[in-house]
Write a structure and sequence with these properties.
Glutaredoxin; alpha+beta; 4-stranded mixed beta sheet
């Protein structure tokens, strides 16, 4: 088996690194905007204790200082009732100024909070 030239590996590696850095930059910009636009009570996250996406969303919003409240469907009967009433298909389900967002979608949150 012949290996690709070293220059090709370097280009691929640099492209991957640049892509990773750009995603981090965009995420930070989104975080700044959300932190500016969101007021306490604007965002409620309905979570599950076993949801990895919930953990990632909680961690990101906390790191970016985005105010939000959270409840867990396994621990809180009212939270579970709200989840079921919304017809939500998964967690996290976010209620942003009265609008349901299934999954953590920073762009959609920014759109609602304009």
């Amino acid at each position: 088996m012949k290996w690709p030239p070293l220059s090709l590996l370097v280009v691929v590696g640099l492209t991957a690194l640049a892509s990773w850095a750009w995603r981090g930059h965009v995420a930070a910009q989104d975080g700044e905007l959300l932190a500016q636009r969101a007021k306490p009570g604007d965002i409620r996250m309905i979570s599950s204790e076993t949801c990895g996406w919930c953990t990632a969303a909680r961690r990101w919003m906390t790191q970016q200082h985005v105010p939000f409240s959270e409840c867990f469907i396994e621990r809180d009967a009212q939270c579970l009732a709200d989840y079921q009433a919304l017809g939500a298909a998964g967690t996290p389900t976010l209620i942003v100024r009265g609008q349901r967002v299934i999954g953590f979608d920073r762009a959609r949150l920014l759109q609602i909070l304009q």
